[in-house]
Design a protein that fits this description.
Blueprint lengths: L1 H24 L6 H15 L4 H22 L6 H31 L4 H14 L1 H11 L3 H21 L3 H5 L3 H11 L3 H8 L4 H16 L1 H11 L18 H4 L2 H14 L5 H24 L11 H25 L3
Length: about 325
């Protein structure tokens, strides 16, 4: 309860700040989702929550956001997936594969161990910390490499959420194009929400759908890595032998729940007057999870991560951004 209550306090503060923005300017230039991350990050940097807060913060960051993502499915029409066309879906698959290969090449060129390179590549290309956590036991990654990759990805993920909307005027993207860009580059599903809500509803829906296709790529990627893991060179100390993951590790339950609600809506089983309340509940829970995400980020961690890891993750992310922009331009996404 203490950790959950702390996240709720930050959520209320973020919503109050957004309401103040709307009162003063008529428009929330910084949404409550982003404000919750900033408040959580500022608090975490100044103060480390004690043990009694950790369970509630972890619950808010994981279970609460998973429920929020499931409920979000009721506000998304499967028709948007069909409208995106097979070319975009194929492009997402190709972008993930190309990013993994390019990122591995960059990290290896920087002298990083092969397993560390794979962790960074999969984290950037698919879904950040979740992909790192799923891939690590399959390839037998060293626990210190896992910790370093996750720590830096957490910080970089927040920076992406805050900085990506600034890319819209620079690239001249419309809402649909920006949604594809966010879905291809932002790490986690709730972070996609935080990065797209300030831009518009269309950007949020397209970004979420593109992101879910990326997340579904985790299954095939893990299967491929499990086949090549025995052939990987030894990196020294390792956390253990390569392992196997169950179905719900490859395809998280909340993605299935999201798709189930989207299907139920498409079939007309969810009444129209339920959609707005469900959307509001999902939005509130997402802000709670963003506060928890901020509480898990200490910006001082950047000084503790090795220079080669920092350069490798950053370069890999820039490659992903370049691939995403080329995909959007090449497919003529409008």
């Amino acid at each position: 309860m203490p950790g959950l209550f702390l996240c709720l306090i930050l959520t209320v503060m973020a919503q109050a700040l957004q309401a103040g923005e709307e009162h003063l300017t008529g428009h929330p230039y910084v949404e409550a989702l982003v404000l919750a991350i900033l408040l959580g990050t500022a608090l975490r940097t100044a103060w480390v929550p004690g043990a009694r807060f950790k369970a509630g913060i972890a619950f808010s960051a994981k279970q609460v956001l998973e429920v929020a993502v499931v409920l979000l499915g009721a506000s998304v029409s499967l028709g948007a997936i069909v409208a995106s066309g097979p070319a975009l879906l194929a492009g997402i698959v190709g972008a993930v594969a190309l990013t993994i290969l390019a990122s591995c090449a960059i990290c290896r060129a920087l002298g990083l161990p092969v397993r560390m390179a794979l962790l960074i590549a999969c984290g950037n290309a698919i879904c950040g910390n979740s992909a790192i956590a799923a891939v690590a036991p399959v390839i037998g990654a060293d626990s210190r490499d896992v910790a370093a990759a996750i720590a830096f990805t957490a910080v970089l993920g927040v920076l992406m959420v805050l900085g990506l909307p600034l890319f819209v005027p620079l690239a001249g993207f419309g809402e649909h194009q920006y949604g594809v860009l966010a879905g291809l580059t932002v790490y986690a599903v709730p972070q996609v929400l935080a990065a797209t809500v300030p831009v518009g509803t269309l950007a949020t829906q397209v970004g979420t759908l593109v992101k879910l296709v990326r997340v579904l790529m985790l299954g095939p990627v893990v299967v491929v890595l499990s086949l090549i893991a025995p052939r990987l060179p030894a990196d020294g100390a390792r956390a253990g032998a390569p392992g196997r993951l169950g179905f719900f590790k490859l395809v998280p339950w909340f993605i299935l729940g999201f798709l189930a609600l989207a299907t139920l809506r498409a079939l007309g089983f969810i009444p129209e007057d339920w959609l707005q309340p469900l959307s509001r509940i999902a939005g509130f829970l997402t802000i709670v999870s963003m506060a928890a995400l901020g509480l898990g980020v200490d910006v001082r961690i950047l000084a503790q991560v090795g220079g080669r890891v920092t350069l490798g993750v950053t370069a890999s992310l820039l490659v992903l951004l370049a691939i995403a922009v080329l995909l959007i331009r090449g497919l003529g996404v409008g």
